[in-house]
Amino acid sequence: MMLFTEVRGLPVLAADGGGPLGTVTSLTVDVVSGAVSHVRFRDGAFGRVGLSGRIGRSGRERAVPWDAVDTVAAGAVRLRPAAPCEGAPRAHHDLLGHRVLLDTGTGHGTVLDVAFDTRTARLLALFTTRGEVPAGRLRGLGDYALVVRAG
Question: CA-CA distances (angstroms) from residue 54 to 48, 50, 70, 71, 97?
Fold first, then answer.
């Protein structure tokens, strides 16, 4: 198990052991399956330090489907051989910081973090400003909010 906040900022490594391809910016979630569908990263951003002393944000955002991920650990996201890097998927809403609404229309805070299984990509739980929400309660995700089934 890992948290989204633990994955954000990790280097993305090719299977051949070469240098980093980039740095994880976010994870795309498929609400219907309740799993991570893509790892999004900024290519070429890893290790580039700008004038402010921060890692640069140069490079374009790219994505790899979860099937292309070999391992996710505390040190890096390692891809399988011949992993297809594609442009960032169009339908993406970062869960972290997203507003949460119950399907009854009541607000349930914002998403602070998400726990997921690094082997299967299945979401385990969402941690919001108003408590934990089991991943099985997810109903939909859009520009405005993440909708979850009430109690």
Answer: 8, 6, 28, 27, 22
